[in-house]
Records
---
Amino acid sequence: MKHKLILKKTQKIALLCLLPFAAAGLLLLLKQAYAAWVMPWMPPCLIRTATGLRCPSCGMTHSVFALCRLDLAGSLRANALILFGVLLLVLLYAECWTRVLGRPKKLIPRKKGFWIGVLIAALAYAAARNLPAFAGII
């Protein structure tokens, strides 16, 4: 017979309060490990190597590293799509709070059309960041 872990509401609230700190600590630990052991072996971006153009995710590692140093401007310079990722994490965290407080609410759209729009926006961002007019801005 499987036992299901049941937490009281106060325990869930305590865990949710600790979650951002635990996540930040884990991110900093993973950043150090990634920089030391993984980055030296990572190949360069295949799209950038083949075409000279930056793909939507080019610079994301630098962006996350800058965010770990609390350098928001450097993070956005490396890749502005980090804002979308951070926004998703904040909304997911808020959804967890609404669930724990007994009023579950979905804050992140789940419809396919929304995510197709996100993909189109990411591709538009990739195109714009490769235009000479936007060089150094995005």
---
Amino acid sequence: MNIAEFVGVDGDFAALDARARLDLALRVERQFRIRFSDEEIESLPRLSWQNFVELTKALLKRTRVARPPTRQDVLAVLAEVRGTSEVIEEIESMELLWLLNSMEQRYGVTLDIDEQSLTRMRTVDGAVGVLCSCVG
């Protein structure tokens, strides 16, 4: 999912008030696991849609090269899909699909994972190991 598809905003971006733009930025932060700086948040009222997309893409690029995924990153994604922060080591198939999609979005890559690696990803530690080798 790209930024425009996620936020559902097209030509009406200019009509959004400051509060709606802040809400949009917060939704983008949660979805793509990025963080806008205070200066970037303050600039939102002056940005065009194109500038907002470019700012978000630049932030994604800076974020994705920062570090490989950690155990905490994987647990956070799983908590999102499970609806609980309870640590469950085994990963079910739908959870694995969600995790892979989330990591692809976060790191801006397409993961091509073989059957053996997918089998290793049935646990949290296995998933961390495979993901680190793919994007780290």
---
Amino acid sequence: MKNRRKFWSLSMHALPSFGLLLQGSLYLTTQKFMPYHADALSVTWEELPPHYQGFVLGVIRGMGAGSVAVSLALLIMLFIPFRRDDRWSIWAVPLIGMIFTLFTAYAAYTIDTRTPASTPWRETLGLTATYLAGAVISYWPRRATPRSTSKNP
């Protein structure tokens, strides 16, 4: 890395992207819903009819597939064009990350407020804030380089 700004910006974007990758992988490989899904539906996995289980797993795996796809795309953009200082990637990475995590937080918030479940919508907003912090670091004005005051001809 050329400088600390680039290192911290890349780190602030990579951290939530790896988190999304892990969460998506968990959702893709789960065999039943998460505890907050049970709370939202007020039933245990075993009480859910088999055809509902299939539907719920399909929805969960769809979310997992989206998380894996977005996170892999972001990580590829981070470690190739972002590191090369391609200007488009400096705004595209945080923008895509913030849009995805904001929509995900909104979906989780909807479940949180309309069901008995307690969803991780606040944690998802934390990912959004991390992408935003990375963008701020990328675009923060650079300090002016002090000019030499010596009068050498």
---
Amino acid sequence: MKYLITLLLLLVAPLATACKCIEFNVGEYLSNAEKVYLGRIISSQMLGSKGHMSATLKVAEKYRGAVFDLEEVVQRNSSCSLYFTLNEEYLVFEGRNGEVNQCSMRNTQHFRDLENQLKALRAIAKLGI
């Protein structure tokens, strides 16, 4: 019985510490972002031994901030860490110092209602908000 309880705790513990992203809302993510853009990962690398990673993205569309044609983002090792997948497209809400996590950098393949979200971002970009 003792082993069964230990096994159950080991299986449930990762769920308790998993990252919780808020329901996607353009306004909420825009309010916390220095830069917003759509880009494709062209390279990624580990930064040291603590699990931090960086990725370079080729930017396809710019929505907010001083976005360059190539952007580098950094993610620190946490419950909200994400895996950078080469050649895949991401919608990025980049924080200070280029920091992102799985909530602020979303793979467009797994994005519900992507076209409507992009339309909203384009409209906001035109207004300069």
